[in-house]
Amino acid sequence: MVLLGYNAVYIRKLSDVVNSRPGKFDAKSYVQKLWAGRLQEKLDSAIDVNTLKESLQTDPADGFGKYTHALAIGNYRYAMVKGIAMVDVVKEDEVLVTIQSAQPFKAVVLTEFVYGNTLRDASGLIDLQAFPNTGDLNGVSGELNKKVRQEVIPALKSMLKPGNKIEFTGAVELNKAHLRFDDIEIVPVRIKRIS
């Protein structure tokens, strides 16, 4: 017995499929609204980086559960943190700082290579189920990172010098399997010079 599958397979150009989607997602508008609204609330309620560090060192399961977010299963978790730091060195693509603490530690404030999903996932505001495809989800990351590069970093680079004390709020990526706070990278969202 022979079965034929006539017209069982259709081949269409990818561009035709993408352009035919109803209500094409506008990542830029989505991020503008998120940035002006709910993200500001998340920044206001960011966990102090020293509290996060202590919590993760004392009871990692509880600390990761309470203070971090991730859109997928795995070792990488993300958190929105705030704190006080002293500027050590201002480089072209990063600012090296020392986080003020009972046991101070070094950190890196990114000022050039702001890519990836750190800010998107640290916010805890994105519901994976609300995005039908990864392209839209990645578009949100791209637009958030672009806002940081275009709106936050230029002001940051022009105002900071070694010896300045700053108050910062930003996003960090943490690896549950290899947890380290020394030289942690911070994607800055708010920076205020205190002195």
Order of the strands making up the biggest sheet: 2-3-4-6-5
Q: What share of residues is helical? A: 25-40%
- Count of helices? 7
CATH topology call: OB fold (Dihydrolipoamide Acetyltransferase, E2P)
Indicate the overall shape.
globular
Q: Going by CATH, what is the homologous superfamily? A: Envelope glycoprotein gp160, DUF2291, alpha/beta domain
- What composes the largest sheet? 5 strands, mixed, barrel
Could you explain how this protein is built, in words?
With 195 residues, the chain is of the alpha/beta class. It has a single domain, classed as Envelope glycoprotein gp160, DUF2291, alpha/beta domain (OB fold (Dihydrolipoamide Acetyltransferase, E2P)), CATH 2.40.50.420. It has 7 helices and 6 strands; from the N terminus they run αααβααβββααββ. A 5-stranded mixed β-barrel has the order 2-3-4-6-5. β2 (76-90) and β3 (94-99) form a beta hairpin. It starts with 13 loop residues before the first helix and ends with a strand.
Which descriptors would you attach to this protein?
195 residues; alpha/beta; OB fold (Dihydrolipoamide Acetyltransferase, E2P); 5-stranded mixed barrel
